[in-house]
């Protein structure tokens, strides 16, 4: 008898089914492995930021300002230098500061995509943060973006209402809510360095928020997070976040249902409180929470289920709260 020259249709279908089952088991494992790698890489970036901040502290006796601001005689009226700009030499990017213009910071954004402020810094980016435009255009200039921000305390925005009880806030003659605010030093973190957040992640994705941006009520979240943070006082939102809302807070309603918001958003002016909440929010594209750098130099992941009370305790430098676990 002659042997069979090929598979039967039934045998072929069985083989395809087995391969499909194996792929179904393998793909989640591959996805989980990739996410673990992205999360570890992000934590390493935050650890580098923490070490850079400590390097700056060792040289200057204090952490860098969140945004050091002066008032100019000409436009733009307010100018500033951000925490990430101050950290450049400690992130092996000191060459960017060689010709940095501190007196007229907007000059650092001239030159199109080749501008110093347009430089893309991988250490400031998380692989899970969706930034379709980086460098991002703004008013004819380009700015490199960051996925991270300094801890601004229990409220970081609007700057006139900021609590300044974290680690980074506006400083200098044009600082808010008080003029001539000073940077923070380790001696001022009386809650303990291991109990105080230094930096955290920012999530640029929020579909509901973008429906308001589409109506020009607010700028897109994807334009927030310019590491150079050149410009007015409100640029502090580019480089700091806070515990004003929980981790991974998202706008609860879209533009169509704006009257269901609390408080209702009948106009762009009414929407401002919702904008403030969202731009303050720590968050990430990692499932279930976000990475943070701590004032003791470590990097840890916090679950999004963490209570707002505990997050506020971790963001205040001298609140004397008792924290049982997090």
Describe the structure.
With 326 residues, the chain is of the alpha+beta class. It has one domain (35-315). Helix content is 28%, strand content 12%. The chain contains six helices and ten strands, in the order αββαβββββααβαββα. It has a five-stranded mixed β-sheet with strand order 8-5-7-9-10. Strands 2-1-6 form a three-stranded mixed β-sheet. Strands 3-4 form a two-stranded antiparallel ribbon. Strand 1 and strand 2 form a beta hairpin. It is globular and about 85 Å long. The termini are far apart. The mean pLDDT is 90.
How helix-rich are the residues, as a percent range? 25-40%
User: How widely separated are the two ends?
Assistant: 73 Å
Give the number of helices.
6
Strand order of the largest sheet: 8-5-7-9-10
Spans of at least 5 consecutive residues with low confidence: none
Structural class: alpha+beta
Q: Report mean pLDDT, rounded to a whole number.
A: 90
Q: Nutshell version of this structure?
A:
The protein has 6 helices and 10 strands. It has a 5-stranded mixed β-sheet. Strands 2-1-6 form a 3-stranded mixed β-sheet.
Short key terms for the protein model shown above:
326 residues, alpha+beta, 5-stranded mixed beta sheet, 3-stranded mixed beta sheet, 6 helices, 10 strands, 12% strand
Give the arrangement of secondary structure elements:
Layout: H1 9-60, E1 67-71, E2 78-82, H2 83-87, E3 136-138, E4 141-143, E5 148-151, E6 170-171, E7 197-201, H3 207-214, H4 236-239, E8 240-241, H5 268-280, E9 289-294, E10 299-303, H6 308-315
